[in-house]
Amino acid sequence: MHPTDADSEDWPPWYRAYRDILAQSEVPAADRLLNTITIVVLDAETTGLDVRTDRILSLGALRVYGNSIHLAEKFEAYLPSPSSVENSHAIPIHGIIPNSRRYTYSDEPSMLAELLDYLRDSVIVGHHIGFDIEMINRALARHGAGPLKNRVVDTVGLAKRLRPAGYWTPEGDYSLDVLARRYRIPLSDRHTALGDSYITAVLWLKLLTRLAVKLDRDLRISDL
User: Fold this and answer.
1) Distance CA 167, CA 223 (A)
2) Which residues contact 197 (CB under 8 A, 6 or more apart)?
3) H or E element: which one contains 153?
4) Fewest CB within 10 A of the end CB: N or C in the chain?
5) How far apart are CA 135 and CA 5, in angstroms?
6) Cβ distance 94 to 58 under 8 Å?
């Protein structure tokens, strides 16, 4: 169960600071132009796909302003693999060797605090982003914080909206790999948090271009 606003006095300081930023910022109204909104493209690599028992191993994120991906403004963090979680089946996918000296590790509360400071009031974009958000929210709850409050957009839903009329495709055809090939996006660093964030950011921009052509006008938040 996530803490509620009634528990705000018990929130950790870093989560209260995040909520204060959201409260003081201009909430993205439906009629605001999309190119005036800061987008954060986010991806999580985890020990598995069960939100109840698996844990985050790595988070990656990139900021997008208008039509530009700002690589210099990246967010990347690694967590040590919990000994209580079986993760060997996921290693061949994400390539993160448990507790390797290759990475600089953060503890979970510090990583969450840094992530919230990075996100601030941005709109979060991701591919099958609901899973990533739930994993982050469960991590927040473990440390007495409430859930993320940012607006969230899934590139899967946007890709489905832009498929040709009457054109049916299996659900698997909306995977990041399939869409990247369809939109001619190189799959470098696939299954790393930052690599997948970049691929998704490029996909996001390509989908927005198609949506703008389809609607024949500048895009607004309400168009997503």
Assistant:
1) 21
2) 41, 42, 43, 60, 61, 62, 74, 126
3) strand 152-154
4) N
5) 20
6) yes
- Do you know the residue count of the chain? 224
Candidates 203, 179, 200; CA nearest to 189 is: 200
Q: Among residues of the chain, what percentage have pLDDT more than 70?
A: 82
Return d(Cα 174, Cα 134) in angstroms, integer: 20
Closest Cα to residue 112, out of 5, 2, 12?
12
Mean pLDDT within 42-61: 92
Mean pLDDT of 23-29: 84
The pLDDT value given to residue 42:
98
> For 169-198, what is each residue's pLDDT tens digit?
665 589 999 999 999 999 887 768 999 999
Using CA atoms, how far apart are residues 28 and 25, in angstroms rounded to an integer? Answer: 9
| Bigger pLDDT: 100 vs 79 | 79
Q: What's the pLDDT at 184?
A: 93
Residue 43's DSSP bridge partners are 60
At residue 122, φ and ψ (nearest 5 deg) are -65, 160
Residue with tokens 């009634």: 6
Residue 12 has pLDDT above 80, yes or no: yes
Q: For residue 128, is it left (φ>0), alpha (ψ between -120 and 50) or beta?
A: left
Position 25, amino acid: S
d(CA 85, CA 142): 16
